[in-house]
């Protein structure tokens, strides 16, 4: 993780890195993707009438397709990367919802299970590659570890967010505030010299329940403590902002590629 005003020096293998730099734009798009994962899945499953089963199957197939494209690209390609993140967000949400609503697994059980699974992924990743830094995603194996961790963070964030806002009755507004404060604390810890890799992944996990609480706050009816915008309008608005920001990134990336020829 690095500050946008103090970018890292250009590395010899910079062109091989398959993930974006950590800038303010990265966090904005990530949170928006998270919110779309929450609202988009609900819209397709209930408003569009697809049902949870069809929605899960279609999203899983789309994720496999997008991830295949992402893995085949020799370098970071913004539109493919962020499309994959949106789909991972939706599928990660559905995994937790399946356990909770379909199989009746309590959130007090699924949350620590996903936390343990994420720790296991990180342990195997570090033992194998000797680094967890996203600035070192320069090989297929590291990228597979990365996406496995990303999927797990979305499932964990969904479970932790639902546990806080629903099971613990924190509510959408207070949930968004609470997780926002935790994200700010992780940023503050990094600025004060905390481990960059640890604070990045802590913040990454926390953006999932923050985005989900924000999404629920915007979409749920006023009687339920929300603003009543609905899933269709919220999803469309956030998708439009994502497309705009990713288009700017893609244009910038294409310009840099053109300059090398």
Question: What is the topological layout?
Answer:
Blueprint lengths: L23 H24 L3 H22 L5 H25 L4 H23 L10 H28 L4 H20 L4 H24 L11 H29 L2
Helix pairs in contact: 1-2, 1-3, 1-7, 1-8, 2-3, 3-5, 4-5, 5-7, 6-7
Structural class by sheet pairing and helices: mainly alpha
Helix content: over 70%
Global shape: globular
Strand residue percentage: under 5%
Count of folded domains: 1
Largest pleated sheet: none
Low-confidence stretches: 1-12, 257-261
Q: Mean of residue pLDDT?
A: 84
Radius of gyration: 18 Å
Summarize the structure.
With 261 residues, the chain is mainly α. Helices cover 75% and strands 0% of the residues.
List keywords for this structure.
disordered C terminus; 261 residues; single chain; disordered N terminus; mainly alpha
């Amino acid at each position: 993780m690095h500050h946008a005003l103090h970018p890292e020096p250009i590395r010899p293998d910079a062109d091989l890195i398959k993930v974006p730099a950590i800038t303010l734009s990265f966090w904005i798009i990530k949170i928006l993707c998270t919110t779309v994962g929450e609202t988009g899945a609900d819209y397709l499953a209930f408003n569009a009438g697809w049902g949870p089963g069809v929605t899960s199957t279609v999203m899983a197939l789309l994720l496999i397709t997008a991830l295949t494209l992402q893995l085949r690209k020799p370098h970071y390609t913004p539109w493919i990367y962020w499309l994959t993140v949106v789909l991972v967000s939706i599928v990660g949400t559905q995994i937790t919802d399946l356990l909770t609503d379909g199989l009746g697994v309590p959130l007090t059980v699924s949350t620590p299970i996903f936390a343990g699974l994420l720790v296991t992924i990180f342990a195997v990743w570090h033992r194998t590659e000797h680094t967890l830094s996203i600035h070192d995603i320069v090989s297929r194996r590291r990228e597979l570890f990365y996406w496995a961790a990303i999927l797990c963070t979305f499932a964990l964030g969904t479970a932790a967010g639902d546990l806080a806002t629903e099971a613990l009755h924190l509510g959408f507004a207070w949930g968004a505030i609470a997780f926002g404060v935790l994200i700010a604390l992780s940023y503050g810890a990094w600025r004060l010299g905390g481990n960059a890799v640890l604070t990045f992944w802590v913040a990454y996990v926390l953006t999932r329940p923050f985005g989900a609480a924000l999404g629920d706050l915007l979409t749920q009816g006023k009687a339920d403590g929300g603003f009543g915008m609905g899933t269709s309008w919220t999803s469309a608005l956030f998708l439009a902002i994502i497309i705009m920001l990713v288009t700017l990134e893609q244009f910038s990336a294409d310009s840099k590629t053109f300059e090398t020829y």
